[in-house]
Amino acid sequence: MYYKSDNIIIREFTPEEFYHFSALFENENVTRYLPYKTPEEYKEMFDKALADYTEGPFSRWGIFNPQNNDFVGMCLARIFLDQPAQIEIGYTLGENYWGKGLGTEVCKALVEYCLSLHLQKDIIAVTDLDNIGSQKVLFKSGFNRIENLEREERELAYFVLSKD
I need a surface site. Which of 59, 69, 76, 133 has the fewest CB within 10 A? Predict the structure, then answer.
């Protein structure tokens, strides 16, 4: 995936950018609503993203500031593990980029990318029940909230953008 606007660039990570990826998840405010992962698990996620670029079409991508190439965050599109007939999107932004409308732009870019694949699958996203900011982004991006998703003794807010 490649996307460019005045505000963000979404592109493949390079192997040297693991530092950015791992540093993103060291901020407790950033990871507050995410399941705990070890540094080794983040390294595995990053290595899988790099491998996925050749296998396509799904992976994790870096989000960068086009003015100064600053690292903004990461986003993903993948087959939804809980429901393989759906595509899951998600993103994580560095705290200094919150509240600037970038989450909505990333979300819309991911939706556009997924629709361009012509897979005829619903696009979904899940958030922690308390992550109101991300839920607002999903509503602004055209998603509808459906019943909560129960996963490993945890409930998540479940959003869908129907393929129809």
Answer: 69
Distance CA 54, CA 51 (A): 6
Mean pLDDT value across the chain: 92
Sheet holding 154-161, edge to edge: 3-4, 9-11, 59-64, 71-79, 86-93, 122-128, 154-161, 144-151
φ, ψ of residue 148 in degrees (nearest 5): -65, 155
CB of 82 within 8 A of CB of 67? no
Stretch 136-140: mean pLDDT, rounded? 93
Its pTM stands at 0.91
List helix spans (H) across the chain.
Answer: 18-24, 28-31, 39-55, 102-116, 132-140
